[in-house]
Amino acid sequence: MASLKTKAYVLKDAKIPNKELFYSNTFKEWVADERFYHDLIYFTTVMYNPNDGLVYCGLTAYDNDLLWTFDPETKEFRSCGYQKVGERFDVKIHRSLQLAKDGMIYGATACLHDLDQRTEAPGGKLFRYDPKTNKIEILAIPAPYDYIQTIALDDDRGILYGFTYPVWKLFRYDIASNQTKDFGYVGTGPHIPAIDDQGCVWGTWKDMYRKRDNLLRYNPEADEVTYFDYGLPLMSPVDIGTVDSMLNGGDGYLYIGTSAGALCRLDPKTAEVAYLGKPDPEIRMPGLILGENGLLYCGTGTEGNTKIFAYDRESTKFIELGRVYDPEINDSSFILHHITEADDGTIYTGETDNPRRSGYLWECKVEM
Q1: Can you tell me the distance from the alpha carbon of 367 to that of 250, in angstroms, rounded to the nearest whole number?
Q2: Which residues contact 225 (CB under 8 A, 6 or more apart)?
Q3: CA–CA distance from 45 to each of 56, 177, 241, 317, 338 (Å)?
Q4: CB 201 within 8 A of CB 193
Q5: What dihedral do alpha carbons 285, 289, 291, 296 form, nearest 10°?
Q6: Which of 99, 118, 321, 366 is the most buried (most CB within 10 A)?
Q7: Are the C-beta atoms of residues 43 and 95 closer than 8 Å to each other?
Q8: Each residue's pLDDT tens digit, 253-266
Q9: Model-level pTM greater than 0.70?
Q10: What is the pLDDT of residues 62-111, one digit of tens each?
Q11: Distance in angstroms (rounded) separating the CA atoms of residues 132 and 115
């Protein structure tokens, strides 16, 4: 029987006295409060690097200390020093770490400030981090005043794609020429985009009239964005088809987890979407990775009832691995914002948006 052995690792641990404070505080108030400025953090991106065996952690952190590593052997965290190059509005790396074939790590910064500070904030940064030298280089601000929610790297063509916020735009950044192309307002964006085998990037745009998310595709060869008049299957009257996770499955298809908790398959050649199932009654599927064993691992749930499932593409069945819960501390992950797999098959998940405390890094050992 499949199971999950889970342990939480704590980098910083600010306690929030009540939920009302979490849901009502503004960016200005969080930054001004010493109880939270350094220690209220969340793990919004996790990425295992097989070159050095470390888990790279992109955080939400009000003091701009956004990039850390976790060593699975020593269980120690280390800051990569983003504070040296960041500015006060760089407070999040949100689904935005990408490993290149040359060993460089590309990332982007997101924001939490409100519109009254929009013109004070220069905009989200694309950056490059060299793990060997510990050097961080700011590459560009693709969309002045707007910050970057997510990126995807086309390593073969040397292109970074991104979606911005609070004004949702799609952009293309060519690394070698240091040139950006802004495709303008698209109304929404995926939690993370994906690139198909032909080099096209897939994301979403907002249907202004029916107020749902539809699919879009950018073809770099034709330099053309296609806006499809449909999106993902809707699971309820309030579901708008938001892409919660997306990846290239290595079999010619893209796989998509929806914010309603469904798993879908997209055929990039025909743009057809197939519904594969909804493994958990809970909403959300922000975690989705392709395991070394060929299984898809899906992180689902919210409000502390978070689980990891495996999906076997051959049998088309889901396997429930277990809840992300550490019995030693009698606590669970509030939301699995991102997941990654180490060489030994261990899954690491980042936790965000916990209204009681800082987010933890969760180590999940899979037994099949």
Answers
A1: 24
A2: 170, 183, 216, 217, 218, 219
A3: 8, 27, 22, 27, 6
A4: yes
A5: 40
A6: 321
A7: no
A8: 999 999 999 999 99
A9: yes
A10: 999 999 999 999 999 999 999 999 999 999 999 999 999 999 999 999 99
A11: 38
